[in-house]
Amino acid sequence: MNSRGVASDTVEHCASHSVKRLAYLSIGSNLGCRMGHLRRAVLAMPDVVGVSRVYETEPVGGPQGQRAYLNAVIALFTDLSARSLLQIAQELEHAAGRVRTVRWGARTLDVDVLLVGAERHNDRDLVVPHPRMWERRFVLEPLYELAPELASVGLGGNVVGSVRVAGRL
């Protein structure tokens, strides 16, 4: 909290009546030019203030025989709502040619809304904080680079998967 009682991850803009806060999204790809899909997603995302390294991970769940994923986490400082970020995420997935046929199946691009300030949602199409983020090493390792105070909570628990650094975007 600052001297005005505003949480450190928010800044009020009185002229526009919007509040900016930190948001975190995970991105992943295991089809086509994986690194290219991730780069284009980061470039198209508004209000980016940080991008983790890229990690290569084996698929968690889903059909057997999938190619390894490349994953990263993006930090935003934004006044967009979780619902607006979900819409942008779905537009980016569509632009990358994602086709949803099999749950946890191979994909050109997957963008998940992890956290958006203190927003909470429990809707059919949007759950924030992301319900499985604390169980997935491919989310927690890159998140730890950008927000160690958040990710360290999950890294002590029952985390699935292994990761290796694959580079930077």
Key features?
169 residues, alpha+beta, Alpha-Beta Plaits, seven-stranded antiparallel sheet, 4 helices, globular, disordered N terminus
In angstroms, what is the radius of gyration?
Answer: 16 Å
What is the number of helices?
Answer: 4
Number of domains: 1
Quote the CATH topology. Alpha-Beta Plaits
Largest sheet: 7 strands, antiparallel
- Name of the CATH superfamily: 7,8-Dihydro-6-hydroxymethylpterin-pyrophosphokinase HPPK
Q: Kindly report how far apart the N and C termini lie.
A: 33 Å
General shape = globular
Could you tell me the number of beta strands?
9
Helix proportion range: 25-40%
Please specify the SSE layout and strand pairing.
Elements: E1 10-13, E2 18-29, H1 34-44, E3 48-51, E4 54-57, E5 69-78, H2 82-95, E6 110-116, E7 121-122, E8 127-128, H3 137-146, H4 148-155, E9 163-167
Antiparallel strand pairs: 1-2, 2-5, 2-6, 3-5, 4-5, 4-9, 7-8
Helix pairs in contact: 3-4
Q: Can you describe this structure?
A:
- The longest helix has 14 residues, at 82-95.
- The chain starts with 9 loop residues before the first strand and ends with a strand.
- It has a single domain, classed as 7,8-Dihydro-6-hydroxymethylpterin-pyrophosphokinase HPPK (Alpha-Beta Plaits, 2-Layer Sandwich), CATH 3.30.70.
- β7 (121-122) and β8 (127-128) form a beta hairpin.
- It has helices at 34-44, 82-95, 137-146, 148-155; strands at residues 10-13, 18-29, 48-51, 54-57, 69-78, 110-116, 121-122, 127-128, 163-167.
- With 169 residues, the protein is an alpha+beta fold.
- The strands form two sheets. Strands 1, 2, 3, 4, 5, 6 and 9 form a seven-stranded antiparallel sheet that branches.
- It is globular.
- Residues 1-16 have low confidence and may be disordered.
